[in-house]
Amino acid sequence: MSGPSAVSATGRARAYVAGPPFGIDAVTAVERSIPSLAPGQILVQMRAVALNYRDILVANGVGAWRVSESRVLASDGVGVVVAVGDAVTRVALGDRVSGIFYPRWHDGELTPDKLAVPLGGVAADGVLAEYVVFDAESVVRVPELLSDAEVATLPTAAVTAWHAIAERHDVRPGETVLIQGTGGVSLFALQFARLRGAEVIVTSSSDEKLERARALGASHSVNYRATPAWDERVVELTSGRGVDHVVDVVGGANLNRSMSSLRLGGTVSIIGLLAGTAGQVDTYRFATKNARLHGIEVGSRSMFEAMNVAIATHRLRPVVDRTFEFDDIHAALRHVETGAHFGKVVLTVGGGDGPVGRALRATLTGNTSARAPA
Ligand SMILES: NC(=O)c1ccc[n+]([C@@H]2O[C@H](COP(=O)([O-])OP(=O)(O)OC[C@H]3O[C@@H](n4cnc5c(N)ncnc54)[C@H](OP(=O)(O)O)[C@@H]3O)[C@@H](O)[C@H]2O)c1
């Protein structure tokens, strides 16, 4: 690390880690040294972090999300570049950036290597920290019109929805898309489907949330608690034809109702596991529907960048349900766990105004009272 744009980051900064003995109460604040930057790396002063359902799985140590040692929680956030290592050309000091969920998946088809180190899980630390070191190749610049809280929601939920709606499938004007629930992925899917001219049918356990989803552009809504055979209602709403595309965030045996909701030759994007990772599935129904099943795994950097262009062009605003302070992480996780939210839950990260932030900015600017970059 050298040159005027480099910071000798010798300070310490706070982060929240998840790990044994597991559970939301076991998520703990730690203080860690900010590592020196290797060539190609950048230091980002985090401003906001968004939670995903996956973070509940990591915190609770569920199945494949059970870490063997404590890991910094959460994959999604935004911050400002405050130091750059040698040979960094993609971003500059002061740029507002988000890390990508799969730091090695820049573009093209998935390979085992690209899938290897998702942020905030078994293989790598996450971003719920005052400062995070990223490879410069593993971040994207983010739309200027969005607030920090809005940008923080993008790396997983939005990219996954974009992948399903606009990359793997190509939702066309006039098509009908079924969105399940009103969590993070689902509301982005709703917004992207509308942006592409599709009609949206949304399901939810709450009439109040359904009303809010209609205000976001859904044409029809079904309460899946009040109407357990919601797939039959969806078929009625499409005059017996079925929808063109189902965004399934529930998984397990829910796939049977997704399939029943589908038109002949339609597509199901299988994304979520809210009902678990397995279930008894009527494969005959798949065959007779002549259906396509797309497994969706977040997405690549190039998908993130394409989505950002669409967001900026259409001035699309992510739905932020609620913003918590950094140290209110336990309340924020519980809020997501209970499913009370509509859209995304975000934490603001105030590390930039602590002693480390001031020291870093002073090194950058030579001014000990310097504020964070705008
Ligand atoms: N494959 C991938 O790359 C990928 C990426 C991101 C997320 N995911 C997965 O996708 C799922 C959603 O993630 P998220 O972060 O968007 O979750 P989230 O924000 O926590 O959303 C959860 C919402 O789903 C709805 N829901 C729960 N059970 C349901 C059911 N049986 N039927 C219909 N809706 C139901 C509820 O909405 P209402 O309150 O409106 O009922 C709930 O609020 C999770 O399983 C997550 O692990 C996968």
Q: Give the low-pLDDT segments.
A: 1-9, 364-374
Question: What is the count of structural domains?
Answer: 2
The dominant shape is globular
Mean of residue pLDDT values:
92
Hetero groups: NADP nicotinamide-adenine-dinucleotide phosphate
Secondary structure category: alpha/beta
CATH architecture of the largest domain: Alpha-Beta Complex
Report the sheet with the most strands, covering strand number, pairing sense and barrel closure: 7 strands, mixed
Helix content: 25-40%
Strand content: 15-25%
C-alpha end-to-end distance: 24 Å
**At the third CATH level, what is the topology name of the largest domain?**
Quinone Oxidoreductase, Chain A, domain 1
Number of helices, where a helix is a run of at least 4 consecutive DSSP H or I residues: 11
What is the top-level CATH class of the largest domain? Alpha Beta
> What's the number of extended β-strand segments?
16
Q: Evaluate the radius of gyration.
A: 21 Å
Explain the overall architecture:
With 374 residues, the protein is of the alpha/beta class. β12, α7 and β13 form a beta-alpha-beta unit. It folds into two domains: 12-153 and 320-365, Medium-chain alcohol dehydrogenases, catalytic domain (Quinone Oxidoreductase, Chain A, domain 1, Alpha-Beta Complex); 158-295, 3-Layer(aba) Sandwich (Rossmann fold), CATH 3.40.50.720. The radius of gyration is 21 Å and the shape is globular. The strands form three sheets. Strands 3, 5, 6, 7, 8, 15 and 16 form a seven-stranded mixed beta sheet that branches. It has a six-stranded parallel beta sheet with strand order 11-10-9-12-13-14, sandwiched between helices. Strands 2-1-4 form a three-stranded antiparallel beta sheet. The chain is built from eleven helices and 16 strands.
